[in-house]
Amino acid sequence: MPINESRIEKMKELGLTEYQARVYLTLLDLGLSKASKIPSISRVPRTRIYSTMSQLHEKGLVEIIPESPIKYRPVPISDYLDKVAESYKRTASEIASKKEELEQEFAVMGEVETEETGRFEAIYGRRNVRERLTRMYEESESEILSIGTSMSPIRIVRSRLPTIEEKFKLGVDMKYAFPICSTNSENAQMLSQYADVKNIDLKLSMYFLVVDSKQALLCHPIPPDESFLKGDDIAIWTDDEGMAEALRNIATSILEQGYDIESLDFATPLLDSAKSYIGLLGIKTKPIFETLATSIGSELSDQFKSDNPVDLMNEMSEYWEANSLGELTILKKKPLTIQISQFVKCNMIPHKSEDAFCDFVQRMVGSLVEKRLKGKASLSKKKCLGKEEGYCRVSFVVA
Q1: How far, rounded to the nearest angstrom, does the alpha carbon of residue 9 sit from its chain's CA centroid?
Q2: What is the mean pLDDT of residues 169-176?
């Protein structure tokens, strides 16, 4: 059956994300399948396939077959439906048992202090800040801009997703920017279905929201955690149009410098650290750059067992795929030539100059090969092939 919006929405109503729904529906059509067959049919990024499979396995919807390469089989949905139904029953029972407690917790506290001018308000307490944010979202007609902390995607998805879905359907233009990491990436991805979400390097201890260039709120969350109910937050709200417009300009400038979240890869902390470190060092610090790549390659060599070049390349190819490191392909066996792509971001202009990341790949993989094969073979004749979807493509001869 086709993977259409109607079927995806039904799966989302049962607690799946869009990526999880697309992958599961694809597996229903394919039956037993390798991970490499899923992206083109499901339209889920290659770098998200393995994490999505793991999430579906935890939900009991996918069975992992420990073959080489690993294969996946869909599990009939009946058991999962029983779990969802039971979960809803427990939730309803818990709400009923805590009714009095919740009535007290959500009672009007009267903690908002309003300045006499009516154009600025100091707001204390996370619950009161949340109520003001709710009003701002409900009053939005054309635009919502927000710059937040690393905890913001989690709080927003947990507390505001239904409202955001509604505003999306009404055509409100929503844009967000946060420091995105492995902890909040899934929430950011979920939010990106309805809004333009950017990753920023700016580490803020506060967030701000601008609505329709008419009102704005700046807030310092205390503590800076993911809870959207409890906290001693301090916020300033204003409907001064000059102030709102100024904050909108700041937000727009920050958003323009952000990165699309599709370009993020949280597959391995090791490579994340390496890429960040390289970016900080710059290409002029060549000795440190080479030492870092050599060290990573040496550590990775312990993951393999093969002691001849062809077998090692086949083993590395499977490892690359299984760990979402991109693609390592054998182009030909005489001379043994491999190509590595979808591994690290590339800055080069094809055919014009060498790129530092190509050098990094050569040094890292070369170190791995030399240690694993005990000096019997090494990489030579590197050729940078330019960018492919923003990633470096580079080929080597193993001799």
Answers
A1: 21
A2: 94
Closest CA to 398 of 356, 326, 339, 324: 339
DSSP codes joined into one string, 186-198: HHHHHHTTTSEEE
DSSP 367: H
Which one, of 253, 254, 162, 160, lies nearest residue 204 by Cα?
254
Helix boundaries (H) for 282-381: 286-300, 309-322, 356-372
What is the separation of C-alpha 312 from the centre of its chain, rounded to a whole number of angstroms? 31
Confidence at residue 197, expressed as pLDDT on a 0 to 100 scale: 93
Mean of all residue pLDDT scores within the chain:
82
Give dist(CA 69, CA 314) in Å, integer. 11
pLDDT at 352: 42
**Pair 227, 126: CB distance under 8 Å:** yes
Instruction: Please give the Cα distance from 171 to 212 (Å, whole number).
Output: 13
Q: Where are the beta strands (DSSP E) in the chain?
A: 33-34, 62-65, 71-74, 113-114, 120-124, 143-147, 173-178, 196-199, 207-211, 215-220, 234-238, 259-260, 327-333, 336-341, 379-388, 391-398
CA-nearest of 329, 308, 325 to 317 is: 329
pTM for this structure? 0.42
CA distances from 335 to 166, 309, 310, 316, 366 (A): 59, 11, 11, 18, 16
> How far apart are the C-alpha atoms of 175 and 71, rounded to whole Å?
38
Contact present, 367 and 294 (Cβ < 8 Å): yes
* Residue-by-residue DSSP string for 233-299: -EEEEE--HHHHHHHHHHHHHHHHT-EEGGG---S-HHHHHHHHHHHHH-TT-HHHHHHHHHHHHHH
> Cis (ω within 30 of 0) for the bond into 74?
no
Quote the CA–CA distance of 258 and 180 in Å, as a whole number. Answer: 11
The one-character DSSP state at 349 is P
Taking only the tens place, the pLDDT of each residue in 284-311 is 445 655 777 788 888 888 888 888 888 9
Round to whole Å and give the CA distance between 178 and 210. 15
Domains parsed from the chain with CATH numbers: 5-75 (1.10.10.10), 108-263 (3.30.870.10), 269-398 (3.30.1380)
Length of the chain: 399
